[in-house]
Structures are given as structure tokens and as C-alpha cells.
Amino acid sequence: MKFFRTIRYDLIRGILKRPHFLLMPIISVMLCLRCSYILNLNEVAGSWLDYVMFCFKGMKPYNSITVEEGFMVPLLWIVLLGAMLYTSLEYPFKDAGTIGQQVILRSDKRIYWWLSKCIWNLLTIFACFLLIYSSVAAFCIANGVPMIFENFYEATNVIFSEVNDSFADSVILSRTTTAVLVTIIMPIISTMAISMFQMLLGLFMKQIYSFVISMAVLIISAYSTFPLALGNYSMVIRNEHILESGMKNVVGFILSTIGILLSIAFGSAAFTSFDIFQDKKNC
Amino acid sequence: MYKMLSVEYRKMISGRTLLVSISLGVLISIINVIENQSFVTWFLEGAMIGTSFSTINLYVRWIGVDQLTLGSSIFFFIFPLLAAIPYSWSYLSEKQQGYTNHILVRAKQKNYFVAKYIMVFFSGTIAVVIPIIINFALNALVCPNSTPHVLNLLTPIGQGSFFSKVFYQQPLLYCVAACFLYAFWGGVCAVVALTVSLFVKKPLFAMMSPFVFAVGGDFLRQLLVTPTSTTKFETSPLALIRATSYNMNPAWYLISIILGLILATFSIVYLKGSKNEIL
Amino acid sequence: MEIEMENVGKTIRGTVIIKDISLHWSSGNIYWLQGYNGCGKTMLMRLVSGLIRPTSGKIFVDEKILGKELDFPPSAGILLENPAFLSSYTGFKNLSIIAGITGNIGKEDIKTTLNRVGLDPDDKRKYRKYSLGMKQRLGVAAAIMEKPELIILDEPTNSLDESGVQMVIKILKEEKARGALIVMACHEAERLRDVSDAIYTIEAGAITKVITH
To answer: Could you give the ipTM of this predicted complex?
Structure first.
């Protein structure tokens, strides 16, 4: 019972009472405006799914050997994911530095505190995605964009113009399960894995360092299609259903799930043996 | 004033955050060296027959110029954070802990803020320059040393770039100039964080502010770019930090921006800091 | 509740903080830890509360090993170091949030506790506007509000005026009568000597003298 109360405490304090989530609708509407501009420029119409795919587009796989220009960080994608990682950054350890000692003591078991924070973290990322999808939906409704779970070929061609000579056969995501996999499941679960990793790092170092490392993970993911670079699976443009020889969804799902479980397990083991000092201010 | 500077210097140098920031920067710059090492080996095995040594020479592959490697991409993306981590949070932290009370009954308020500004600036410069210099030294063990060729397409320095003539004639001098440029940018990022810390309550947000401004500025820029929009000079904050850029970034342009930012941040810190009541 | 320590030691980064402490505490008693600043009183209280783990030895709480069979004592209220609460909430709201974890008490109990420590339950001021004395009183309230079996108070009279010190002494007597096991560290030597059932003198992390009444 105390465990569920601890979770409730974290959900109220960590999700409902935090203004950080406002970043999601702001950023996603700005991305929708950009997408709308690009589509209008090419005189094509998109659907809700096209707009969502634009938000999580990312960049085409980078080849440092044959490329003629330098590596450009995919800013639009990294800002969106970075905002989510920032939202899940501060709360656990800020809380521990204030009222947290009283909460931990009443949680009965140290592992309950950690598990509660893990659940909070996963739900935070999920809430961020929900806000993004809802904001895109609101934008689409306001602009008369069809609210359907299918992308239009012309729009997809324009949005992913840099890879349309190597489109996968299934690039038109007319099967709902495929669309859900590409635009919902894969981005959410891979981002959850990175966020959990960031929180695990926060147990051992200041939050600013864990944020720097998670940003480095995102850049590594943009730079390389190495399967363990989990950020790859949140880039729609690299999905196997968009790009021939793209990232395999099964591999991404398994690796992300393992990443989440390992973070929970290592964190539990570490936190169980930690000394808890209130004045250990994390920054 | 001298005593105040001395106190701030000792606090800055003895802190662990400076060491951590430098270590992080060095680690990331080593990634660049490792990538260069494998690229040079691959090149020398005959992979790029017909291409000159300009492709692999030290001055092109060094992190300060290179734009192809993962190491340089990560380093310059988190450059504002590396600069702000060592000491920019110190004012806010001292104020919240009540330490400023001890200082201000013993020294003039404006001396405290001037000394703080100088040391924060200095911390930002060394946090970024040391990894860059170490990277140069390590790359010198791996990459051949030859004067870059102006016709090499892989060299991202063209007409209108920062000290472009110097790069193709006296590349070592160029590297020294670029180090100074990066040092000043590091200092600017750190004092931007200090300036923000006068207005916010969370040290974490103050530390991240230069990064947020740089990335946010680039984000807005990418949202607003149109097919017909061209800028003669570089406007991307993240690209401005680098000596190499796709748009023009001559020395006078970069120095003007840096001086402008220093003037603005110093004015704010001096005026607001000196006049504020410390509660 | 029975607390037993067997040869408990704590070392942090090579520095010995607590040295080979053995003792036995039981409910319905007040144990006063006294010693100079930095002698290890607070660390000992942290060990008993389960917030830190001993480097050597064992701590038993009702015959269960703390840190192995138990993470924390099952029913404990603590005031360690400076009271720390959420600055944007009132005192009442802060206590409600904490009490919501265990769910053992309701709003009326919280109001009663606030009255006991001399704070107004209807005070709309946020915690950040509290004076040091008010923050200390709120810290005491958080430690006693759920009527725990173990109460740990580190310098409970810090920043308190005369009425506040009287309040703490009164609360100690009441909680003792209720059957709580109270461990406290305090510099109010004259007044607390009579209240305590045993006085432990700590020097350099070790117990050098025990006086029982």
C-alpha cells in the first residue's frame, strides 16, 4: 500500500505540478508550422500521421567516408528529445534534497522509492509523447488537416525527400499496426530507455553530467546506425518501414526494453546500498 | 580587488567541477583522435588513391577545424555546457547557502561581482581550451603535418572564413588564433550563465542557459529558413562558436559579436549585482 | 520497540566516524546523546534511522537486522540536520504530503500536531516565508505527527525561543508516556538531564560514558 502511495506522491509532484511539460506543445506546434510550410511550398497535403512523422523525422544515416559535407546535428529532432530528457532530469534528485528524506523513510523499503521514480520516469516520457501527439492533433484540426492514421505518398515524398530513392516498400503506412509501430511504439520506448539511463546516471553523478551524457548518446545515435545507439529507433526516417535497410524494429524494441530493465535493476542495487544525505545537493 | 580576485581564483581552481568539465572535454576530444587514427590508417592503405595528404593532415583533422568526426560534433554541440559547468553556478550557490553574506561584509559588493565575472570568464576559457590543445597534441601523433591545400574540397575553410588566408599559409598560427577564439567563446558562454543566474533560482537552469540559447537559436533559425533566404554572414549560434562555418564568419565579425556579448553581460552583472540587495 | 547495536562502526572515505558502538534501547525511554560538535551524534542517529548503512557490525530493530531484513525502522519519525520541506507549500500542506505516504493519519491529526508545536494550522504563509524557529517547529511536527514508535530528534531546540524549548520538553514527556523510544541530541544540558532516562557521552565516534537514571 505504501508503495502505491509513494507512486501517487511522485505522480502528483512529478507530473501534475511541473510546468516543464509545456515545452512539448510549444515545440511540437513550431515543428508543425515548419512542416506545414514545407508541404505548402511543394503544394502537397499531409495527414496527422505525416505531421507526427515530421516531428520525429531525425536525419538520414550519415556516412563519414563518402559524405561531402560535415555532420550536421539534426536539431529539430534533438530539441524535441532533449526537451523530454530535460523534463525527466531534475525531479528525482531535487526531491531527494528537500522533503525526500521524510518520503524515503516512510516508503518502508528503499527499492520502493527507486521503483516509484522509475515508474514516474516512464510515465513522464509517455505523458510528453501524449502531449506531442495531442498538440499535433490540435494543430491539424485547426488547420483542416485530415486526422487519419495513414500518410499520403506525396507528403511523405516531400518530408523524406533526402531518402526517397531508397524508400522501403512499406513506406505508405496504410496498415495501422505498422503506423503505430513506426510513429508511436518505437519513439516512445527508445526515448524511455535513454531517459531511464539518464536517471540511473543521476544516482552516481550530478544531473548536469547525466544530461551531457544523454545528449552525447543522442548525437552518437544521429551519427551512427550502431544498433545500441538507441536514439536511432526514435528517428522515423531510419525506420525499416521508411528506409530500405533501415533500423529493425524488433531489435530496437528488444534493446530498448533490455535498457529499461537494466537501468531499473542497476538502480535498485545501487540505491539499496547508498548512504542518504540530505545536504547532497544535486545540480 | 586583488584579494577578491585571489579568493575567487582559489575557489574556482580548487573546485572539482572544473576538473570534471576538462576531463569530459578531453574524453570527447579523444574520440576525435581515435576516429582520425582509423581514418588515416584506412587512407594510407590506399583507400583514397589520387587524393592528397591534405585530406588527412593535422590541421584539417584537428577538432578545431574538423566537421566530419563524431568527436568534434559532440564537443561543439555541448561546448556551451562544458564552458558553463566549472564555475558559472557559483554565485547562485553562494547566495543560496548564505556565503555571500560573509563576503559582502568584508568586501565591496561591486568588487565581488567584478572578480566573480572575471573568474567565471576564465573558468569557461580553460574548460574548453585545454581539451582542444590536448586534442591537437594527440592528433599530431596520428596525422601527418602538411600545409593544407586550398583546392581540397574537404577543408571547410573558404573565402570569408575566420583567418582563412592564414590557414593556408601559416596553419599553426591559425590554430593558435582559433584557440584564442574558442577560449573567448568559452568565456562568453560561462558569463552568459552567470548573468542568467542573477535572475533565476535554479543553478541547473543557469548552467544550461547558454546551451539552451545556442540550441534554441539554431532551432528557431532552422524553422524560419526558406529556400530564398540567404545570409551572407553566419547567424547560427552553434556555428558561430566554431572557427569553420558554411557562411562567412570573418575575424572582425566574430570579434564584434564576442565583444558585444562581453559588454552586455558585464554591464548587467555589474549594474544588477552591485545594486541588488542580497536576501 | 527494541533497538540493539552490536559493534557498529562507520567509515566514510577512510575517516572513522563511528567506532565500535554497542548499546540497547527500548520503548518508553528517552536517550540523550551528548558530545562536542563533530563527535558523531548525528551519524549515529542516521545509522539508527536506516538512512546510512554501518560499515561494520549490526543494528537490530525488534530482532531484525537493519539494512538486510529491514530498510528502515517500521515506525519512525525523524528530525535530522536542518528541516527541509517544499518551499512553495504551507506547513500544513507539507505535512499532508508526507503523511499521505503512510496514510495513517488524517487532516485533524495534522492540525492537532501543528497546534502542539505552536504553529497555526490555518497559516497561509508558504514555507519559504517561515522564520528559522517556525521551520524548526515544523520539523518537530513532522517527526511526531504519526505517533511513531521511534522518534529521532537532532538538536530539536535549535533556533527556538523559550516557549519553543518548553514545547519540546513537554512533547518529549508526552511521547515517552505514550511509549515511544526517543533518541535525541541537544545542547540544552540543564533542562534535558531530568527528562532523559540515559545519557550517552560520545567522543570521536565512540561512547565514553553512560549515565542512567
So the answer is: 0.87
